From TrEMBL:
Places the protein is found: Cell membrane
InterPro entries on file: EmrB-like, MFS, MFS_dom, MFS_trans_sf
Protein's name in the database: MFS transporter
Pfam families: MFS_1
Topology in membrane: Multi-pass membrane protein
Amino acid sequence: MKTAIGDITSTRSSYRVTFVVLCLAVVAFALLQSLVTPVLPTIERELHATQTTVTWVLTAYLLSASIFTPILGRLGDMTGKKRMFVVALIALTVGSLLAAVATSLPIMIVARVIQGVGGGVLPLAFGIIRDEFPPHKVASAVGVIAALSAVGAGLGIVLAGPIVSLLSYRWLFLIPLIITALAAIATQILVPESRVTTPGKINWLTATLLSGWLVALLLAVSQAPSWGWRSAKVLVLVAVAVGIAVVWVIAESRSANPLIDMRMMRIRSVWTANLVALLLGVGMYASFGFLPQFLQTPAGYGYGFGASVTESGLMLLPLTIGMFVLGMYTSRLAERFGSKNVLAVGALIAAIGFFVVALMHSYKWDIYLATAIIGVGLGLAFSAMPNIVVAAVPAEQTGVASGMNANIRTIGGSLGAAVMASIVTVGASHSGVPQESGYTNGYLMLGSVCVLAAFAALLVPKLPGSETVLGRETSPEPRHGELAMTAGGTVVGGKAE
C-alpha cells in the first residue's frame, strides 16, 4: 500500500469539491439505471422490437454492470480510484451517445452493455471518499452518496414521462450523457488521485468464471417469466450458474490475486450486509418496475388509475423525496442508534410501505402514503449499509467490497423483478392485463422479503468505536506530531509508519 489515510493536506483539492463531483457522477449513473424502465413500450415501437426482445435493453445493462462493477472496483484499488472513476464515466458517456443514436435494437443493446461498465462508479466513489475525506466526514458522505444513488433511480422514474413528452426518448440518454461528460472532465481536473493503492493484478480466470455464473443466473431469472420457471432452458441455466459459481469460489479461494477475497466475504459485517442488500434489492427494483404499470392500468379493470407515464411518475415522487431526506440524516441516526439498528428499522419501514400498497390501493392518497413510507425505509437502509461494509474491510479493499455489495443489490433486483413478474401475471386476462390479486400477492411478497431483510440486519455485528468514523474513534484530525490510527498503521505527522 503506498500510503495511509491521513489528514487532507493543502496540496490536494478540497474534499468538498471532490464531493460535489462525485455527487454529480452518481446521480447521472443512477438516472441511467431507471430512466428507461417506464418507457420501454416507447422504445419497443421506435426500434420495431417485440415485448420480449425489448426487455434486453434492461437485461443487457444489468448483466454488464454485474460483471464490470467488481472488476473496476478491484482495478481502482490497484491502479488508482480516480483513474478508474474517469474510465467508468467515459463508458457511461460513450454508451449514452450510442444509445441516443441507435436505430435498431441490437445497437441499443450494445450501447447498454457499454453503459454497464459504468457500474463501477458507486464503489469507486465510496473508495475515493474513504481516501480523501477527513475521518469524521466519511460516514456522512458515504450515506449521502448511497442515498443519491437510490434517489437518482427514483428520480429517473419521475422524469422519464416529461422528458419523452416534451422531447423524445433519445433525450433519456442525451441528458445523462451531458452530465457524465461534465463529471468526467471535472474528475480529471479537480479530484486528486488515490494515495491508497494495493499491488496486484487481475485474475482473468476468476473474472471469466464470475462473468459466466452471473450471465447464466441473470439470463435465467430475466427470461423465466416468458420461458416459464420450470422450462428446460431456465433449469439448465440455473444448474450451469450454480456449477460455475462453485468453481469460481474454489478458484478465488486458491488464487494469489483474487478478484474478490473470499476471506473478506466471510467477514460477518460483509456477508450480512450483502444478504440485506440482496433482499432489499428485490424490493426496490421490483417496485420501480411494477408500480408504474399498476398505476397506468385503466380503472375499468377494477383497479389502477389510468395514469399517464408522467402522472405515475409524480405519484412515485414521495418515494424519491423520502429516500433523499432520510438518506441525508442517516449518519446522525447511525451515530446515536447504531448502523445495524438503522438498517433494520429502515427495512421494516419499507416492508410496511409495501404492505400498504398490497392492501390499500383504492385511492391516490393510498399510493402517496405508501410510496412515502417506502422511500423513508429505503433511504434509511441504503444509506446505512455502505458504512457497515466499508468499516469492515481494509482501505485497499474498499472498492471491491462496496462494489460487490452494490452488485448483489443489482442481482437481487433482477431476481425480484423476475419473481414479481411471475406472481403478477398469474391469471392475467387474454389482453395481458394482470388481475388485481396478482399485484396484491406480489406486494405482499415484497413486504415479506423486507421483513426478512430486517431480521438479517440484526445479524450485523455492532461496529467498534464511533459509527461516524467507520470503526475508529471520533476525534479531530491530528495536528503535526500527534498520533492517529489509520487503516494501514500509525500516522505520525501525516506519514504512515
